[in-house]
């Protein structure tokens, strides 16, 4: 009987560690944070908690009641270097994105892809799972997938997950020409094998169970992958897939979760609708570490 | 008769047993039954009393496998057909002759079995495409949700999507759900105007469904979150009866459905009953990694669906 490979556990593997690290970071250099839109009571509570615990140093906006204006001001403050991170409250996601992606701001640099990364801590897995992109890139093409991988891998490394293992998710783990999701994954896996993608290990296509369950990977005959069975980062083929996985895990998977938008001048803490105060607070901690 | 909605996997199995007890025990024919997991599931379901089983396949292998695993197959009928394709033809023929009510996949690829199921000589084709329904019982959600299609149609066009929905609604009828609440996925619920291709699908599927499928409430675009949870709902503009209460989640792509369903199975301990719908008999398949409860639930839903077809003369 072949010995089942052990999963590699990175140094940072829980939200307790993320929050502790974020607090340490803010103790040396306070993370200046601005809240856009105070209409979501849970996000306000999370923001105040973060301020009270010195996770962030709150920066207030004049005219904060006008959420639309507050978003504009917050983005300008970020561009001007006056804040280290933005926390999005109840302000409609789509409106915020519209302002954020407006080239005249300029919050996003030319050629940069902004993406959302959800972080999932389900004690059932033993380490953190990062899922992307649940917030911005609707149906990433090959080039965008490469950028998604780089954003997520850079972030994972920054919070202490060295050489993250990136799974390109699909419905199957074989390559079918009629399924572009699988062919894209195969190309990216080959690019990784040829060391064209730095700082992470990429494999795909992988189905969900094969990505996170070593026994499932082995039962499908995938035994030499450095990613299968022990993925850190899950790259989903569409936005609704990533969002579905993220919310399935938070609503039903007994997981702690948080989310952050990366790729702009400063990180944006972005929680999902059903996220609890604690999970919204975790999103803020992620943004502190990303800043 | 007042509908008695089936809302959990336990109720699903119990209902299949009840129908069998009322003289409507269904017969499931296994195509290429030399698969130990399938033999085990069939023996269990037979012992529970909700089906009669015909194992079509390599009799020597079937007997040996059952012996090795101490599975009691005495009450299952064995038809010795060694070649897997010939076994598939035999099982499908049993169904076409009315000697079996449902077909179960054994030791052959799904595509090979379905090719035989769709073979014109057996007359088992329906008017719709074949689609996979994953009926999930998620602990924490107050009813089951049918997520479709995560197994068959790679990139459905709007018409195919409607057929997938119609298949799923048929399963909902068999589960006696009324009205059937359908959420149609597309991007995230707050983000739909940035997704030009998806609303166009929705604009075809939803009006068509409202016109042609009675007794349903349908809404979209809706995210998985919104389909199953009302938490934080007041912050969004979405309104409607489906929010937090969906019976069917019609998903945008095979990937979305497959991946989200598997996340729920892996990390939320969801029990799932899977069945392929669209032919005149349900086609059941289980995989090695399924728990015994998953396997029984999949067989139970196939029996309940077959019962529904028969009682309502759906294909006549």
Note down, in words, how this protein is organized.
The complex is a heterodimer of chains A (291) and B (316). Chain A has 291 residues and is α/β, with parallel strands linked by helices. Helix content of chain A is 40%, strand content 16%. Chain A has ten helices and ten strands. Chain A has helices spanning 15-28, 41-52, 67-79, 93-101, 142-158, 180-193, 208-212, 214-219, 239-251, 277-290; strands at residues 32-36, 57-58, 85-88, 115-122, 129-132, 165-169, 201-206, 233-235, 255-262, 268-269. In chain A, helix 2 (41-52) crosses helix 10 (277-290). The longest helix of chain A is centred in the middle third of the chain and has 17 residues, at 142-158. The model of chain A has no long low-confidence stretch (mean pLDDT 93). Chain B folds into two domains: 1-126 and 279-308, Rossmann fold, CATH 3.40.50.10950; 128-278, Isopropylmalate Dehydrogenase (3-Layer(aba) Sandwich). In chain B, 42% of the residues lie in helices and 17% in strands. By secondary structure, chain B is α/β, with parallel strands linked by helices. The relative contact order of chain B is 0.17. In chain B, the strands form two sheets. Chain B has a six-stranded mixed beta sheet with strand order 8-7-9-6-5-10, with helices on both faces. The interface between A and B is large, with 50 and 47 residues.
């Amino acid at each position: 009987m072949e010995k089942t490979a052990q999963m590699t556990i990175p140094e940072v593997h829980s939200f307790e560690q993320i929050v502790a690290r974020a607090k340490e970071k803010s103790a040396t250099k306070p993370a200046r944070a601005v809240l856009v839109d105070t209409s979501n009571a849970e996000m306000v509570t999370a923001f105040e908690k973060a301020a009270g615990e010195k996770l962030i140093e709150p920066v207030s906006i004049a005219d904060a009641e006008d959420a639309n204006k507050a978003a504009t001001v917050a983005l300008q403050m970020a561009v001007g270097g006056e804040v280290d991170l933005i926390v999005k409250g109840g302000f409609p996601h789509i409106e915020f994105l519209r302002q954020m992606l407006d080239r005249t701001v300029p919050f996003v640099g030319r050629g940069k892809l902004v993406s959302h990364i959800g972080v999932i801590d389900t004690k059932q897995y033993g380490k953190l799972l990062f899922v992307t992109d649940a917030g911005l890139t609707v149906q990433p093409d090959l080039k965008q997938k490469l950028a998604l991988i780089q954003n997520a891998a850079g972030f994972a490394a920054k919070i202490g997950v060295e050489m993250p293992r990136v799974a390109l998710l699909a419905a199957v783990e074989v390559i079918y020409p009629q399924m572009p999701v699988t062919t894209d994954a195969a190309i990216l896996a080959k690019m990784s094998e040829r060391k064209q993608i730095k700082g992470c290990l990429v494999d795909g296509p992988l189905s969900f169970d094969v990505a996170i369950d070593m026994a499932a990977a082995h039962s499908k005959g995938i035994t030499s992958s450095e990613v299968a069975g022990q993925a850190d980062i899950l790259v989903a083929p569409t936005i609704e897939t990533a969002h579905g996985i993220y919310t399935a895990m938070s609503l039903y998977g007994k997981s702690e979760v948080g989310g952050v938008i990366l790729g702009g001048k400063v990180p944006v803490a972005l929680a999902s609708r059903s996220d609890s105060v604690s999970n919204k607070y975790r999103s803020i901690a992620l943004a502190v570490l990303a800043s | 008769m007042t509908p008695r909605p089936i809302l959990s996997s336990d109720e699903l199995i119990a209902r299949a047993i009840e129908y069998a007890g009322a003289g409507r025990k269904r017969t499931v024919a296994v195509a290429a039954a030399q698969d130990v997991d399938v033999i085990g599931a069939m023996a269990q379901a037979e012992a529970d009393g909700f089906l009669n089983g015909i194992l079509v396949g390599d009799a020597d292998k079937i007997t040996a496998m059952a012996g090795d695993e101490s599975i009691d197959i005495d009450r299952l009928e064995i038809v010795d057909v060694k070649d897997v394709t010939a076994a598939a033809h035999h099982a499908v023929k049993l169904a076409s002759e009315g000697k079996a009510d449902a077909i179960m996949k054994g030791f052959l690829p799904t595509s090979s079995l379905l090719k035989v199921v769709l073979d014109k000589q057996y007359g088992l084709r329906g008017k719709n495409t074949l689609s996979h329904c994953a009926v999930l019982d998620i602990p924490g959600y107050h009813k089951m949700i049918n997520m479709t299609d995560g197994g068959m149609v790679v990139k459905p066009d709007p018409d195919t999507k409607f057929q997938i929905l119609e298949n799923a609604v048929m399963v909902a009828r068999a589960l006696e759900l009324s009205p059937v609440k359908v959420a149609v996925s597309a991007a995230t619920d707050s983000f739909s105007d940035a997704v030009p291709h998806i609303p166009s699908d929705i604009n075809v599927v939803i009006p068509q469904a409202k016109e042609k499928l009675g007794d349903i409430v349908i809404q979209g675009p809706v995210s998985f979150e919104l389909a199953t949870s009302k938490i934080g709902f007041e912050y969004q503009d979405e309104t409607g009866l489906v929010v937090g209460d969906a019976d069917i989640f019609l998903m945008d792509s095979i990937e979305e459905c497959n991946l989200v369903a598997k996340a729920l199975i892996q990390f939320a301990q969801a029990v799932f009953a899977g069945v392929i719908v669209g032919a005149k008999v349900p086609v059941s398949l289980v995989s090695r990694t399924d728990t015994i409860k998953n396997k029984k639930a999949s067989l139970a839903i196939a029996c309940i669906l077959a019962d529904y077809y028969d009682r309502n003369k759906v294909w006549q």
